[in-house]
Structures are given as structure tokens and as C-alpha cells.
Amino acid sequence: MAPYSSLFFLLLINSFHLTIQQNSLSLSFPLTSAPLSSKSKFLTTAAAAESNETRLQNKNEPTPSSSPFLYNYQSSFKYSMALIVSLPIGTPPQTQQMVLDTGSQLSWIQCHRKSPRPPPPPPSTTSFDPSLSSSFSVLPCDHPVCKPRIPDFTLPTTCDQKRLCHYSYFYADGTLAEGNLVREKFTFSNSKSTPPLILGCATDSGEAEGILGMNLGRLSFISQAKVPRFSYCVPVRHGQDKIHPTGSFYLGQNPNSRTFQYINLLTFPQSQRSPNFDPLAYTVGLEGIKIGGKKLNIPVAAFRPDAGGSCQTMIDSGTQYTFLVDAAYAKVREQVVTLVGPKLKKGYVYGGSLDMCFDGNPIEIGRSIGDMAFEFEKGVSILINHERILDDVGDGIHCVAIGRSESLGVTSNIIGNFHQQNHWVEFDLTNRRVGFGVADCSKSP
After folding, report:
1. Which CATH superfamily is domain 262-438 in?
2. Which residues are catalytic?
3. Where are the beta strands (DSSP E) in 215-336?
4. Where, residue-wise, is CATH 2.40.70.10 in the chain?
5. What positions does UniProt annotate as the active site of this protein (predicted)?
């Protein structure tokens, strides 16, 4: 997710199973997806912009975990608008639902001490009870993460009345997620678990269930657990269909990776990391956009961070649609108007962001627009078939799934999960690259 909005989910719950393959542990977790509320369908990331987060990466401060990640996990998930993974947390484990978010750093779960004390939790619970876990601990106010040498304004922390480290996250629509920073294990079996990781124990977060922060930040799940790579395959979703398709998700090695094409993650000097640059995002080198086989006249500069950090291009699992800065969006809209302008639903804007919408036959309109492609370095591209150009937003209306970044109050290009359908997307942290592989994501890997 790109760092900006509120989270509202209807959660589906499943269990996990354990398998052993060639002397290595493989754990399978159900990953489900659920629709967001109408006021927050586009972005599902945790905090407001993390563009200044490098302040937290002081090398003199302790690293939350020093043990390497030695496991491979394979999951399945239901896809609608956001991906929700069910993970076993604590000792003994309590299954928690967390949104898989490549645009967030801090992972957090709902924590509510149940009263009276219940029996051991069932395989799935909607909130975490710290009193039932022997590995749970809270962070005191004097912990370096709570009081870093240089304050981190994207993770505001204070000292509460109990001298515990308290954090608060505000979302774009005013929703508040707050609680204490704690340490807890992800317990995959009796013998396999992560070290205690720092995460948020939320006591008030609106309707959100939790976040699995997967960006490059020091406190993200992948950084603390030292996950070398992870990947997911988002299946095609058919509009408002209540039957959500199933995709796949891996932590660790993906057996399909031999078919992937890779592009390098981009890095930039410190001078380009403020005020709009997010150094913890998965920043890629988008080269151009094609519609109907025609490459649009968009300067490459529209896809690269300028001196102030604007125009960064990122891959985000937690943002539903794709959003482009004005220089790029204007050219996309111009081409769509050229091709199907008379069919546009005039004056209609979906969700305050999508304004290329139609109430005519979506198959004919998609065919008239043609295929779309996001082109990267090394000849790598994400191809969107004309049948997937439009999204069914309800009431017989279909919209091109691209919005103007300015409508969200951001200055970045964000490639959302809608345009990742039927592609493997792998984040290879070891080699600092992102891989893409065309696939029928509705099929088992």
C-alpha cells in the first residue's frame, strides 16, 4: 500500500497447515481479501507518508532481530480489493488477520484483553489477547525505538501513564489507529518461530484488523524477520462478483521464479529524499505507457523522482488502483478520450479519483481502447489485456482503473494491485530487484 489511507475490512478466516519438503519447513497460510468501505477503496496502507522514515534507520540503534529467516511459506488468498493474510502470533499462537501491505512499515494487530479469561483460543480470532501469550512483552518508554536519537515523524510515539511506548496513526479520512509498541513472536509450529518482533498492539483502530508491513523500513516484518524475498500472484477479479478468486503468496523461495523477468529497484541520493520521496517504497524505473499499441508521449521524467521527491514510481500491493502524476495522467486520459470520448459518462467521478467512466457495454469499450502496457527497463512490461482495462464499480458503471495522484493528495505514481492481476510479482530483497511473471493466478502454483 502506498502510505496514506484508512482501512475497513470484512474479514474471512481460515486455518493453516504444515508440510515438510526435502528437509525444509513449508507452512501454508490462508490469505483472504475483503472489500474496503466506499470511502477508502483506493489505498489500504498504514501511516501517512513515510518519506522521512530514514530518520529511524540510525545504525547505532539496536536491530530488532538478528536471526536469519530460514523458512519457506506458501499461502493461498481470496482477492477482491485487498489481501488479508492469517498468521499465528504468540505462544501458543492466536491467528490474526493482517493486510499484506508493501507500502507500510509497522505491522500491527488488534489487541483486546478478553474478560473473563477465556479458554485457549480457537484457530481463528478477531483480536489478540496478550494475557494468553507467554512470549508477549511491551516496550518501555526508554526503548531506542520509542525514543530514537532523531525523532521519526512518520511513527509518532509518546510515553503513556504506565511508562509504556504509545504510538498513534491517523488515516486520511480521520480514522485513528493507536496502541502500544510490543514484542511478539510469529509462531509457525512448536519448533519454528521468529524471534520477538516489534509491532503495534492497537487498542483503537476503527474497523481495521491489522497490517503486515512489508516495505523496506527497519521495522517492517520482512526486515525484522530477515525475509530474503516474497511474492504473490493476484488472480483476475470480475467486478462486483461476491465469489472472490483465489491467488497465491510466498514468503521465501518461489518455485516459479525461473520464469520471472526482473528489474532493479532504484536508489537515489539523500538530496532526493525530501519532502515527497518515500525511501522505503519499492521504487521502479517505469519507462512509458502504451495504449492500443501506441506509446504515449510522456516524458520519462514523469516517472522519476525530481529534486523534491515527486514523480517517484512504486509497486504497491495495498493500493487497489493505479495513480499517475498529472504529466502522465493527462496523456492517458487524452488517448482514452480520443478513442472513446463520446462514450464517457460526463461529470461522473468514482470515489473522487476515477473520472474515465462509462455506462455502455464494457466489452466493446475495452476493445475500442485496446491493450495497455506499463513498460520498464530491460524490455520488461506489465501487459493489461483490453478485457481488464475497465473495473466494474457498480450500478452498471465501469471505469478505467487509473486515477490522478493529485486526487489523493500525493505526488507519486502508484501501480496498484488491479494492474498486477495475472502476474507474479516478486520482491527480491537480497538482490534489490522486482520480478514479474505472467501467470493464470487462479490456478494452484
Report:
1. Acid Proteases (2.40.70.10)
2. 101, 316
3. 229-233, 246-251, 261-264, 286-291, 294-295, 313-315, 322-324
4. 17-227, 262-438
5. 101, 316
